[in-house]
Amino acid sequence: MNYPVYKVSIECLEKSLDQTCNELKAYPKGNLGLTLDSAKDDRWRELRKVKDVYMKAIRKLNSIAPKAFFLKRRDERKAQRQAR
Questions:
Q1: Counting C-beta atoms within 10 Å of the first and last residue's C-beta, which end of the chain has fewer, N or C?
Q2: pLDDT of the residue at 37
Q3: Residue 29, SS3 per DSSP
């Protein structure tokens, strides 16, 4: 695996994870968490499973990639934040 492949893979997974998380946040919540209707909704359960799959994929990709890739990506993100 080379760095450009790792970078594109991670970015795609993170983008998909962000979309899933935003969709999950859109569900109505009561004082104690999700309303009963939302908790029983099949789409909500499906989104939770998808989120878990994305999280596991990101962890797995980071674990098989050389540590130098992870550190280089971290430095790139830090530079982007400072540029803003």
A1: C
A2: 63
A3: strand
> What is the spatial distance between Cα 31 and Cα 59, in angstroms, rounded to a whole number?
32
Taking a C-beta distance cutoff of 8 angstroms, is the pair 46, 23 a contact? no
At 27 the three-state DSSP class reads coil
pLDDT of residue 75: 93
Question: Helices 3-25 and 42-64, interaxial angle, to 10°?
Answer: 160
- Count Cα atoms within 13 angstroms, Cβ side, for 58: 15
Whose tokens are 């803003």? That residue is 84
CA distance 27 to 44: 8
Ranges of the chain with pLDDT below 50: none
Burial class of residue 50 (count of CB atoms within 10 Å of its CB; 0-12, 13-18, 19+)? middle
pLDDT at 65: 87
The pTM (predicted TM-score) of the whole model is 0.72
